[in-house]
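hey so i finally got around to running the thing on that chain from the lab meeting. sorry it took forever, my laptop kept dying and i had to restart like 3 times. anyway pasting the input first so we r on the same page abt which one it is
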Amino acid sequence: MQKNPSIELIFFDLGNVLVEIELDRFFHAMAAQTGMSKKKFKNRIKKLTPLYKAFECGQMSSHQFFQLFGENFPLKSASYPDFVKDYTGIFEPNQELFSWCRILRQQVRLSIISNTDELHYQRIAEDYALDELFEKPITSFRAGSRKPDPSIYDYALQQLGISPDRALLIDDRRENVLGAQQVGMHAILYANNRKLKRDLHRFFLQIP
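ok and heres what got predicted. didnt touch it at all, straight out
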């Protein structure tokens, strides 16, 4: 079986695709830090969604984010390193998919398009050596926009020097898949590894 010549580059999402997100770890740590119940903290943190989206778009530094977070949630330990450890200690790798990426890399170019902030990305990149597998990873905090805004897809295509009809996005959110398709990219809605393997075969990409 030969690869589909129209697909030259695959963009992977990070959260809930390449890495699993265990938010309960952060909620548990912050409940202890704030003296709130985990349920109360989870309810209150929803109010910070605009702040987090701004952080994901690179509109503030990690230290500014920490300061603003502390203004909303006074922490028993005001240590920035302690906060970073709790904030970023929520990821587990999708080991099978990482192993597949090593196979796919022999067939096509690989990169990333992710809505993420600099703290989360730095932790993932260091823990799982992203630069060894993925070319010029594209992040919302560097691009200044988030999926499904068309501008982040255009930015990614420009940075990687690829036309949309030769690029494939793998993402777990339907709106991000639709956003990619609207700019002319191919896209797969990720649900689990088994389904992804079948979907990749439709593009003549081989996973043993």
